[in-house]
Amino acid sequence: MRKYTVFFFALLALCFHSCKEKNAVQSTIQVSPNMAFMTVGEILQLTAKPSAGVQWSSSDTAVAKVAGGFVEAINDGHVVITASTKDASGTADIYITQEGGEYQGEYELVWAEEFDGTTLNSEYWNIEQGGGGWGNQEKQYYTDRAENIRVKNGCLEIEARKEQYGNNEYTSARINTKKKKDFAYGKFEARIKFPKGGGTWPAFWMLGYGSWPTCGEIDIVEHVGNNPYMASHAVHTRQKNGTKGNNWSSRQNMANMEEEWHVFGVEWLKTYLLGCDALRFYVDDQVGGVVYSSQNSTFEDWPFTQDRPEFIILNLALGGTMGGAINDNAFNNPVIMYVDWVHVYQKVMK
Fold it and tell me: How far apart are CA 126 and CA 119, in angstroms?
């Protein structure tokens, strides 16, 4: 009798296991592809097997919409597309990025400096002063004089001058928004007209709080008059920085880089691709480079996080490690960096 009882329970267990496997197979819908990369505005068709009675849904319709298996990429980000019936379901991971600097989703303007009026807004800006090379063997002395910095005709004007000032033979200006306006994540843009002349080194950039380079530096754009067609983008961190010579950088070349207006920007993006943050640099919507964090980044190699905001800097340096040799003939005409406006956008949370 005992052997029949054992046999009965063994048969019951086998039957249960078989039924469980059958139900497991029936409870899964195969979605193809089960992972895909798209750009904003693109449409991708997913298929489901079995397909009878499948309903499609998106984990975030602000990122991507789905109908009948057709996925429409709306904004950048990550979304999970689910195919389901009453008894079964399957998913696909969709990662969406964007081409060009013009974000196609919903950014909200959170701060704007239009440089209206006749004086620099001290609620936004600090004027830095001093010589001493500024860590880059620069030749200018930064002042707060109207000869070097002023607001005029709806623009900020930073003028570099050939003149003796203290121990320096040149003067210029540098301003920042430290402890007045700082941000984490978003889109940062400025409309700028660069001067011409060998040795000029204008920049629009961001810096975190604390000691360099651990604080993190985002060089939205740097230009040097000794390379008149070039716009440089760069990132400095504790692990990878200019002192070590291993920092990330990228360059764009344009025929009319000097003495014409351009919009320079960076998008500081959260979980942009496969869970990694990114910095996307562009000139007039032309992407010049993208640098990513890693999935196991530390503050030493990626300090650009929500709890480490950065402030904005505008300056016109002369000479130094990047500016190079100064051509004094440039000062036969005014050497002025014009800034029409600075805008900061952040994504609307829904």
Answer: 13
